[in-house]
Amino acid sequence: MKKQLIAWLMAASMANAQEWKPVQGRIMTPWAETLKADSVLQEHPRPQFERGTSWKNLNGLWNYALTPRNAGRPASWAGKILVPFAIESALSGVGKTVGKDQLLWYHQSFTLPADSKGKKVLLHFGAVDWQSEIYINGQLVLKHEGGFDPFSMDISPYLKKTKQQEIVVKVWDPTDEGPQPRGKQVRKPEGIWYTPVTGIWQTVWLETVPGTYLSNIRQTPDIDAQTLTLQTTVVNPVAGDLVKFSAMKDGAVVAETEAEPGATAVLKVPSPELWSPDKPFLYDLRVSIVRKGKAVDEVKSYFAMRKISVAKDQAGTQRMMLNNKFLFHYGPLDQGWWPDGLYTAPSDAALRFDVEKTKEMGFNMIRKHIKVEPARWYYHCDKLGIMVWQDMPSGDLGNHWEIRPGIFGRQTDKQRSPESEGYFRKEWNAIMDALHNVPSIVVWVPFNEAWGQFKTKEITEWTMAKDPSRLVNSASGGNFELTGHIIDLHNYPDPVMPEPVYFGEKQVIVLGEFGGLGLPVDGHVWQQKDNWGYQTFKTAGELFKRYDSYMEKMEQLIRHGLSAAVYTQTTDVEIETNGLMTYDRKVFKNPVEAFFKAHQRLYRPGLVKFP
Question: What percent of the chain has pLDDT over 90?
Fold first, then answer.
């Protein structure tokens, strides 16, 4: 019997391999070259909310079809698609464009997890771009709009008593022909605008839970009060239930408290060990629903004690503070795109690689640009010690951009329709909720370079009120208003800053984008001709000499009032060749060690003095 089972598994694996292969003609990352269709992104997709073994990964080969937008469920399937890679990507195995006039359909059969008897079954999607309808065994369970936020549903009422169950997912995505947030996706990629991403692009998974279960935990640290404030959402609580919180350090419990379901709890963390890029310490957190002395549901999480704030230096200029001390924030603009998977990294090791190498190059921050990542990317930032500035993906462009601060009469706000404004507000709210617990996120960025920017003061102040524990960079790169914590100039290629005498009293001064020094590397480019950079060099040595001169200048800017800077960019992306490494992650354009050495001058003690 055992031999028969092994033979069956081997045959199934071979069948999967024969049904899938990447679309040819694109450069590939090293992780894509060894990817297998039956073992895609198998890590637990939610490291801050984990129930252990009671989950089942549904990534792998699904059926797919494309139909006209007004069509019903297809009668047959066109072939196989590898989930969770967008249909336009090479790793999907399809490589087709969808557009506003077509629907993308997915179909998969599944069996329930072994421990599902007597329990509820939840179905989770990390992200689906953009509008999706989820059907279980022919019944509509949920309609979701939003390409960057995770969503879940209880599918228990829709399950059959038979062994096999069926999922159908219907997706519509108008890319840049609709009012929804879509980041840098366009129908006709060029310059800084990239290939469309349609459909499922993060992990799909099942989870079994008891009748009463935790569906959310919200945690906010306060290092001055030495507390962690906790709020939970409990489904189907029973009178007398309590939620128990246990904080652990190196396996030992250091703090515990209890609260009723839904009530706010305050966990006292004595003499907290603080999180910083130099020492990214994380506490373990266990949260349990306790009924008559027994745990009926339990979730593992983690948290960090850290604080981001502002304070005036000796000259009266606002400065960005981490844990009540000045720390210059310096990092790359990180688009989070992949030549083989587009929005989706080919493996968790690939996802970690970008963060790890950023850290090794001596950066302490990443600006996650116009995209939201899977939860595991933020987990790697938390573990490795990289601060994150999180952008809201843009959409509905069309207003006039004024890059200079202090200029009146040229910038305009986008006059969004109620539908467009509603999509922005709903998704920004959902993104902030989904990422609230991530310790590494220290700055929210609702608008970039006036792309769809509207009601700037209102949106900024709403963001600040929703999350007072972080800073808000209201308008990165232009169309400035006196709102939020930060004024953020973009300048290419060399580093400059707004004059602190005029702009530094009320807002922190940052250089939100600069650099863009380009170097195409033959054999590692998206296309052989017509590549692009803000300033292109012929040799790596020439490029680094210019870069190093920028670091010398940056040191003087820090003394003068600069609190942060963002260099464009981590990798090449499509026809942009201004990355620190190539798009396929195979070539660093200069040694990692050289960048690390150049950056150390930015963190020298004594550059900034305080009263």
Answer: 91
Tell me the one-letter amino acid at 77. W
Tokens of 155: 């599918």
pTM reported for the whole predicted model: 0.95
Helix, coil or strand: residue 450: coil
Per-residue exposure over 267-285, b if at least 16 CB sit within 10 Å of its own CB, e if not? bebeebebbbbeebebbbb
DSSP string, 538-603: SSHHHHHHHHHHHHHHHHHHHHHTEEEEEEE-SB-BTTB---SB-TTS--BSS-HHHHHHHHGGGG
Q: Per this entry, what is the length of the chain? A: 611
Question: How far apart, in whole angstroms, are the C-alpha atoms of residue 76 and residue 93?
Answer: 18
Residues 6+ apart with CB under 8 A from 328: 558, 562, 563, 564, 565, 602, 603, 607
Provide CB contacts within 8 A for 91, sequence distance 6+.
Answer: 22, 23, 32, 35, 82, 85, 340, 341, 344, 346
> What are the beta bridge partners of residue 257?
245
Tell me the per-residue pLDDT of 567-592, one tens digit each, with 9 for 90 and over: 999 999 999 999 999 999 999 999 99
Q: What is the mean pLDDT of residues 370-396?
A: 97
Q: Cα–Cα distance between 591 and 164 in angstroms, integer?
A: 53
Nearest to 330 by CA among 360, 364, 361: 364
Q: What is the pLDDT of residues 79-97, one digit of tens each?
A: 999 999 999 999 999 999 9
Q: What DSSP state is assigned to residue 338?
A: B
Q: Helix 540-560 and helix 592-599: axis angle, to 10°?
A: 20
Cα-trace Rg, the chain: 24
pLDDT number for residue 18? 57
| For residues 407-434, average pLDDT | 94
CA distance 155 to 135: 9
Tokens of 274: 């603080």
Q: How would you classify the pairing of strands 165-172 and 131-136?
A: antiparallel
Q: Which residues of 75-105 are buried (b: 16+ CB within 10 A; e: fewer)?
A: eeeeebbbbbbbbbbbbbbbbbebbeebbbb
Residue 231: C-alpha distances to residues 13, 45, 240, 328, 467 (Å): 44, 22, 18, 32, 14
Partners of residue 310 on adjacent β-strands: 320
User: Which among 387, 283, 280, 270 is positioned nearest to 328, based on CA atoms?
Assistant: 387
Strand 517-518 vs strand 535-536: parallel, antiparallel, or unpaired? Answer: parallel
Q: Is pLDDT at 256 greater than 80 in this prediction?
A: yes
Rounded distance, CA 368 to CA 588, Å? 20
pLDDT in tens, 434-469: 999 999 999 999 999 999 999 999 999 999 999 999
Provide the Cα torsion 460, 463, 465, 466; round to 10°.
Answer: 170
pLDDT of residue 408: 84
Report the alpha-carbon distance of residue 439 to residue 442 in Å, rounded.
7
Residue 354 pLDDT > 70? yes
**Cα 195 to Cα 454: distance, rounded to the nearest angstrom:** 26
Spatial CB neighbours of 404, under 8 Å, sequence gap ≥ 6: 478
Predicted local confidence at residue 163, as pLDDT = 87
**How are beta strands 508-515 and 562-568 bridged, if at all?**
parallel
